Every structure is written in C-alpha cells, then in structure tokens.
Amino acid sequence: MYKSKVHIKGDPSKAWQTLQQTFINNNFSIKPHGASGFELTGPGLNSTKQNPLLGISKGACRLQGSTIELSAELGGAQFMQRFVLFFPIGLGLILALVFSLTMGGWTAVATPLLAVAPWLVLSPLLSRWIHNRTERAVETALQNVAKN
Fold first, then answer.
1. pLDDT tens for residues 52-100?
2. The whole model's pTM is what?
3. CA-CA distance, 60 to 81, in Å (whole number)?
4. I need a surface site. Which of 50, 66, 113, 121 has the fewest CB within 10 A?
5. Rounded to whole angstroms, how far apart are CA atoms 135 and 1?
6. What pLDDT, on the 0 to 100 scale, is given for residue 101?
7. Are residues 20 and 30 in contact, defined by beta-carbon separation less than 8 angstroms?
8. R_g over Cα of the chain
9. Which of 130, 125, 126 is nearest to 52 (CA)?
10. H or E segment to which residue 34 belongs
C-alpha cells in the first residue's frame, strides 16, 4: 500500500479538480465521496511504455483543508513486476522442452536456458525499476498539483 500526503500552496479546490482531471485523463474510474474525497480504479499497466500512473490499481484521495492524502494499491505495477520476473524463466523452460523433444541432446536444452540466463539478473532490476517509477510518478503528480 502506497501512501502520500502533500500540502497545497495555492487554491485547494483548484488543486483538487486538477488531481481528479489527471486521473480521468488517464482513464481511471472515479467514484466521488462527497466534496472532499474520491475512490479511483485504474485501467491497469500492460507495458513499460504506458504512463506509470497506470500502476495504480485502486486508490482513495481525500482533501482535508489544504492537504491532499492519497493511498493506493499498486496492483498494475505489481502485475508488470511479476510478468518481468516469471516470463523469461517460463519461456526458457518451454523452449528447452521443445528443443529437447525435437532435437534431443543437452545442447538443445542448454541453448535456450543460456539465452534467458541474463534475465535472472535483469528481471529483478527491471521489476524494482517498474515499482520505483510508479511511486515517483504518483509523487510527482501530487507535487505538481500542490504547486498550482
């Protein structure tokens, strides 16, 4: 669960509207809770080329005076993290099986496993990058809203 709080330097109502519009523009579903709160549901993160805000799967925002509080589940980012971790391993195992059945021998099995070996190092790094990128995007959005 990610949580953040920012103090608004300008007009709180303008900042609040800007925050809502930011999520709406990124295809989030917004469910208002009175004048000072809303829940949001994200469309999901399917690629690292998408806006990292889409890493939020569910969240809640609350305006208290001149402070905005956001709590969010980063389910979209977690999905991408799991994909990056497990896809290369699964691909290597499937290719090793196919190669062993069609060509036989240990070299046929070792070739695809060696091809995905670098991903044993790269996947955890990329996974952490996806998570950090989503957190930075949320924090940046809140900071930008607070400056208005």
1. 999 999 999 999 989 999 999 999 999 999 999 999 989 988 988 888 8
2. 0.85
3. 23
4. 121
5. 11
6. 84
7. yes
8. 21
9. 130
10. none
